[in-house]
Write a structure and sequence with these properties.
Layout: E1 25-27, E2 30-31, H1 37-53, E3 56-57, E4 71-76, E5 82-86
Parallel strand pairs: 3-4
Antiparallel strand pairs: 1-2, 4-5
Length: 92
């Protein structure tokens, strides 16, 4: 009887991109430019809801975030929309 050789699994997952190029994935293997309209609308709605619930807030003059906030407003646009960044999790 012959012994079967065991194949070692690869140490790192393989990627399908050219060397030297940064991966710009948003979800799965789609790039930001390929993000669908539905995802953009969902993101807009999510951020809007964060602001309405008070979970997104600006830093105070001391540089602190209110205790009820989980996201900090990083940028405000002229049309009233904001960009946020998560800074902590909330335990209920």
């Amino acid at each position: 009887m012959q012994k079967k050789e065991k194949k070692n699994p690869p140490s790192a997952p393989t990627t399908h991109r050219k060397p030297g190029k940064a991966a710009t994935t948003l979800r799965g293997n789609r790039t930001k430019s390929q993000a669908g309209r539905g995802e953009k609308e969902a993101t807009y709605r999510f951020v809007k809801d964060l602001v309405v619930r008070g979970e997104a807030a600006k830093l105070t003059q001391e540089g602190k975030l209110p205790l009820s906030a989980t996201h900090v407003v990083t940028k405000e646009h002229k049309d009233g929309t904001v960009e946020v960044r998560r800074v902590r999790y909330k335990a209920f």
